[in-house]
Automatic annotation (TrEMBL):
Enzyme Commission (EC) number: 5.3.1.6
Catalytic activity: aldehydo-D-ribose 5-phosphate = D-ribulose 5-phosphate
Lineage: Bacteria, Pseudomonadati, Pseudomonadota, Betaproteobacteria, Burkholderiales
Identification of the protein by name: Ribose-5-phosphate isomerase A
GO function terms (MF aspect): ribose-5-phosphate isomerase activity
Length: 219
């Protein structure tokens, strides 16, 4: 099976985790696009969606799915989103699509984070995928310098990308994230950092992993 077929498989499988009559949290990316497409036929069975990006909002609306502002919602039962890497404990690197800040906001509203990913995303230790960090533009150089001092990674601003919130993304290569919870807590405090793409406090409760043998459920 191709990677796209595996993404379609888990996108479809995620529909079974949507709670009828509820508002569903919707992430961002190519795997989530498969989920949105699979959700469309059930649009009358949900109260709507809270979206984590302009791109996902546009796709949801184009398919006739109602989108609510996160400010209108106090809690949602499930948030369904992809990941760039996920470890066996459900900790993730996210932000390859630059939507990490809104993704963490919607994840925070949710009781359960359901991660959907093809099998290539499962790793023993996070860090082979460059860690995205959303940064206020005037702090970019300071954050890059600080990464070098604190963790020894090579950080650089992602060229040509402005987030939905008007900020830049700093990608950090060469990390071995052995304690995701501690690193998320530390980097989140640095001045100018809006969001670090480590999802450890908001880790996945369930991961639907697309494999050539079918969907593997990790809990
Ligand atoms: C976007 C994300 C995505 O979930 C992540 O990049 C995975 O994307 P894809 O499903 O296209 O592989 O974090 O900010």
């Amino acid at each position: 099976m191709t990677q796209d077929e595996l993404k379609a498989l888990v996108g479809q499988a995620a529909v079974a985790h949507v709670v009828p009559g509820s508002i569903v949290g919707v992430g961002t990316g190519s795997t989530v696009n498969c989920f949105i497409d699979a959700l469309a036929p059930l649009k009358d069975q949900i109260a709507g969606a809270v979206s984590s990006s302009v791109k996902s909002t546009e796709r949801l609306l184009a398919l006739g799915i109602k989108v609510l502002d996160a400010n209108e919602v106090s809690s949602i039962p499930v948030y369904i989103d992809g990941a760039d890497e996920i470890d066996h404990g459900g900790h993730m690197i996210k932000g390859g699509g630059a939507a990490l800040t809104r993704e963490k906001i919607v994840a925070d509203l949710a009781e359960r984070f359901i991660c959907i990913a093809d099998a290539s995303k499962l790793v023993d230790t996070l860090g082979a995928f460059p860690l995205p960090v959303e940064v206020i533009p005037m702090a970019a150089t300071q954050v890059i310098r600080r990464f070098g001092q604190a963790y020894g990674g090579q950080a650089q601003v992602r060229a040509g990308v402005t987030t939905d919130n008007g900020n830049v993304i700093v990608d950090v290569r060469g990390l071995q994230i052995t304690d995701p919870l501690a690193m998320e807590a530390e980097v989140s405090q640095w001045p100018g950092v809006v969001t670090v793409g480590i999802f450890a406090r908001h880790k996945a409760k369930v991961c639907l992993l697309g494999t050539p043998e079918g969907v593997r459920t990790l809990t």
